[in-house]
Amino acid sequence: MTFGSGAPPFLNLGGGWCPTVDPTEPKMQRPAVPEADRAIGVPRPVLAHGSVVLVDYMGNDAAIVQAARVSYGAGTKSVRDDRGLIRYLLRHHHTTPFEMVELKFLLRLPIYVARQMVRHRTASINESSLRYSIAPDEFDLPGPEAVRQQSKVNRQGRGEPLPAEVVEAFRSDLDRVSKDAYGAYVRALEAGVARETARTILPVAYYTQWYWKIDLWNLFHFLELRLDPHAQEEIRKYAAEMAHLTRLVAPIAYEAFEEFTLDRVVLGRREQRAVRALLEGATPEAACAAADLPLTKADGAPLRSGEGIEFLAKLDRIRHAGSAGTTV
Ligand SMILES: Cc1cc2nc3c(=O)[nH]c(=O)nc-3n(C[C@H](O)[C@H](O)[C@H](O)COP(=O)(O)OP(=O)(O)OC[C@H]3O[C@@H](n4cnc5c(N)ncnc54)[C@H](O)[C@@H]3O)c2cc1C
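# flavin-adenine dinucleotide complex -> structure
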């Protein structure tokens, strides 16, 4: 695939480093992707009251190629095609061409998810302020399937199901406490308490909304962290919707991101030693032992986590790469 007709005319560099506009070329066009244009302004629901909206985007796959060709000039002639160039740039962490693409979202999200998103410092955020406006009476009440036991293997996650009565007791407490808090909020406002003070009574299950704008490289970084199974389920749902929209804007870059970032398996030095042992015919357990990747405690009891367990999980990923559910 090439971008010959869609790419803006100042790509016509003639091998030099300084872009000059050729007056015989058609007028420079804003890069547009019809699939992404159709998605603009259409809310994609997330959780009970949340949503992700693509507000606007700047650039597309062609903008990445355009930036790279300014940087490399005639050097890119050795690259087979634009798809190959994008995949090369991503594999080799040539990041700035990806920064030429930007996406702006409008997110409606519970405050506890917003607290996780705000950690991604490379996004520009403008949040609606409860100093000026009144909070809507909307809080996140997780479905019964989302209320589960504390995970035994992942200290920050959830695991096995809980008895139905425990789930319902929690959901009913959350419902009652949230409604009580909102009632107190409204009473405070009616009694003349300043909005900026009254809002402090609202729990983190209440919703906020903001514009969230970020360039494609940093969006990929955000998606890598927040699509990961270690991220909290709720932020993963937002990340999944944002990933869908990102794929519309820059499908070739997104495909490369899936292959070289989401689906990559990184092996440390000892893990490489274990792979060498595997290639020489060792069992996974023997390979772990040879590479000092522990699978058991000192007393022989099996470990549930740690470098050895993570290595076996990586082997499992490799074994299943390309089967249903993976993107290879
Ligand atoms: C599963 C998971 C669990 C987490 N648990 C916790 C937790 O328990 N407690 C907690 O506080 N946070 C937690 N976080 C948040 C995490 O520590 C990061 O703050 C968050 O993921 C943002 O990552 P980032 O800094 O790479 O991204 P960004 O802020 O978007 O930054 C992108 C990149 O820019 C560079 N950069 C940006 N700002 C700076 C800077 N000031 N100095 C140097 N380099 C910079 C870095 O290379 C960085 O990777 C968790 C995140 C995840 C995904």
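# post-check
The radius of gyration is 25 Å.
The pocket of flavin-adenine dinucleotide is lined by residues 119-122, 156, 218, 221, 225, 230-231 (CB under 6 Å).
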